Input
Amino acid sequence: MRWDLHTHYYPQSYFRLIEEIGDAFSFGKSPTGQTIIRFRGARFFGITPPMTDPEKRLEDMDRVGIDVEVLSLSTPNVYFAPPERQAEVARLTNDAYAELIARHPKRFKGFASIPMDDADAALRELDRALGELRLQGVVVLSNVNGRALTEPRYRPFLEECDRRGVCVFVHPMIPANAEAFSEYVLGPIIGFPFDTTLAVARLCYAGVFKQLPRIRWILGHLGGAVPYLFERLDNGWRDFAECRANIDELPSVYLKRLYYDTVSFSRPSLELALAQVGADHLVMGSDYPHLLGSIERSVSSIEALDVSKEQRDGIFAGNAARILANLA
Output
């Protein structure tokens, strides 16, 4: 079995809502004629047919041998909407996911989107998504309109995720200082892994991983630079009192408990992650159907790793089966 835990699907109505109420976002064309979404004038991502076409997705899945996609709404998720409308967008997209899963229950699963800027609505949608819709977890972005996930306003939601033992997929967003990433499509290329790294470091030093140990975190894009920075993050704990204020063990102790998807496709990078966290904390991802993703390399990069069959099977599907909700 092969389960892709980093793959994105968008209802057509979602793009219409971005155009209608996403003040910082606009639509345009790339130099090659592709329809793209811009964020504050800079290229954000290009729209590809499989983003809205389930039949094309199934065709591509069958072609490369992927059994199940765990769908999520990528950046900007529902955060482009004003706080009073985020719940509306979340319900629309989560309902669309549930309907697609009902049509193809053996091929699609899903992570729910959450209206993070409305604390009460966030808790209601979490309950609805896991209960009524029976989705497999939630997706949150690495920052919420420039605000860190460690802000007190998000604590009740995270505490409820911990109480339930929810799988929380952290997908990157353009960093708060977006202007620095406005050229050469640097937002997705560099900004995404940069912001994931920043978000994880904050969550770790703030004590969130220590205090809320039942959340099953999945980090997109192999955790950004996190596996590479284990020792430096540990040195921060050793050298600076503020880095020890909320945690009583080395950061790497907590970081090894997280899960990292394989959206890197680079053998040296994947081998580093293997050495740092072990095969039982890696899960397959493709970032399909975005241009920087690859449904083909999501499979071939794992096949190329020097691991046992048991470990490879775990990366492909077994680890996912341990951490996702509502699979029975």
In short: The chain has a mean pLDDT of 95. Residues 3-11+49-323 form a domain with the TIM Barrel fold (CATH 3.20.20.140).
